[in-house]
Amino acid sequence: MLPIPPLSAVRAFEAAARHENFSRAAEELAMTQAGVSYQMKLLEERLGAPLFVRKGRGMVLTDLGRRIAPRVTEAFAALGEAFAIARAENASVLAITAPRTFATNWLAGRLGDFHIIRPDLAVRLDVTDQMVDLASSEFDVAIRGMAGPVPGLVSHFLMRMPVTPLANPAFLATHPLETPADLHAAVRLSPEDDWWDLWFDSLAVEGQETAPRSGIRFESQVLDGHAAIAGHGIAILSPPMFQPAIDAGLLVQPFPHVATYRNAFWLVYPEHKRNLPKIRAFRDWLLDQVRRAAGDDPYGILAPMPAA
Question: Which terms are listed as keywords in the entry (predicted)?
Answer without folding.
Answer: DNA-binding, Transcription, Transcription regulation
